[in-house]
Specification:
There is one protein chain. The protein has 59 residues and is an all-alpha fold. It has a domain of 38 residues. Helices cover 56% and strands 0% of the residues. It starts with 13 loop residues before the first helix and ends in an 8-residue tail after the last helix.
Length: 59
C-alpha cells in the first residue's frame, strides 16, 4: 500500500504519482501480485484525476 494517503484535500502531482507507479513495477519485477494490482489500479485513477485524463480498469 502507498505511504501517501489519498484525499481530496491533498492532491499529489502527476509526477509524484507516476514515480510511485514506476517504483511499483520495478519492485514487482513486472509481474504484479493481486495486492500490487489493486494498488496499481488506485494509482492509475489518482494519476488520471491529476492529469485530467481517464483511467481504464482491467475488465
Amino acid at each position: 500500500m502507498s505511504p501517501y494517503p489519498c484525499s481530496a484535500d491533498s492532491e499529489r502531482s502527476a509526477a509524484v504519482v507516476n514515480e510511485e507507479i514506476r517504483d511499483l513495477w520495478q519492485r514487482s519485477g513486472g509481474c504484479l501480485s493481486p495486492d500490487d494490482e489493486e494498488e496499481y489500479q488506485r494509482l492509475l485513477v489518482e494519476w488520471a484525476t491529476v492529469t485530467g485524463g481517464s483511467a481504464r480498469s482491467a475488465a
